[in-house]
Amino acid sequence: MKQKHLVTLLMALLTPFSAWAALSVGDTFASDGMTFKVTSINPNEVQVGNGNERAVDSNTAGEVNIPSSVADSEGNSYTVKTIGGMAFYGCQKLTAISIPASVDSIGIVAFYSSGLTSFTIPGTVKSVWGNPFKSTPWYNSLPDGLVYKDNVLLGYKGAKFEGHVEIMEGTRLIAGRALEEATGITSVTIPSSIECISPQTFGGCTALQSVVIPNSVKSIERYAFFECSSLKSIDIPSSVTELGEFVFANSGLVSVSIPQSLTQLPEGAFHECTNLTSVTIPSSVKLLGGGAFWDCTSLKEVNLANGLTTIDQNVFYGCTGLTTISIPASVTKINNSAFRGCI
Predict the structure, then answer these.
(1) What is the pTM of this model?
(2) What average pLDDT does the structure give for the chain?
(3) CB 3.0-4.6 Å disulfide test: which of 146, 155, 170, 189 passes with 131?
(4) Residue 306 has what DSSP assignment?
(5) What is the rounded CA–CA span in Å between residue 238 and residue 258?
(6) Alpha-carbon distance 208 to 48, whole Å?
(7) Is it true that the peptide bond before 43 is cis, omega within 30 degrees of 0?
(8) DSSP, residue by residue, 112-153
């Protein structure tokens, strides 16, 4: 028995480390001259590049075909789901890219300042961060105005962009930060083909006064209307089931009505909306996230419906205008500093 155990131990010691050292999330490996980063195990998924530097040599030339799947040195297969930030940044000899249908997101400046003249954004892509194709020959050849590619609004081109913006009907996706800091925009109409308002889409649009959001929209992502200081009111349609963190933070909202389709308000949703005077929370909302109304100094009227269970930390922190509030019987948890600074 001892001899059998000794043989087993010797075999284990002689086994090469690489044969049993499986990759973990965050690990990188190279295949056919391209770097990949593991983003998920079971299912096995990777992104092109590590998100902080190029995935290929800067002298990569001509057309590059991104594979839909790739294997590591041990033969483990991974689906390529993401093109990471900076993946092809500054590859000026790169003229065309083939993006497979497995890809669902493209990171910031992924192709910035490359030589791209030809590419297609597949319909499987659900997230684009910023305009990753900016400063390419393709981009430089476009006229000033809104920049579209394959029914994706990537951003706008030109120093001045003012007045009303009508996003083209049939647009299926708005890139994150697409209209960020377009300080001359006063109103926006979003078409019924849009299901998501991406992160920071209108962040810093300080002249924006009105937005028409269609019933097709299901989510409004983080910081979407951050620092829209001229935005006094907004109609959140009943189709919306998710709001992102700090979605209306530092905006000019005076009053807001939350639809029954929401079950929670996220962290910082109305953070420092100093003009906000009243808010109605429907019975569908179970959670008020941390700092949801932090420093809303003009807030005087809050209507909380029975059904709310949790008021998280700092929800009404610094709401100096709030003198009375009725807590429904359904509330079972009020976290630290929920009402700190309220007089």
Answers:
(1) 0.90
(2) 93
(3) 155
(4) B
(5) 9
(6) 36
(7) yes
(8) TTS---EE---TT--EEBS-TTTTSHHHHTSPSEEEEETTEE
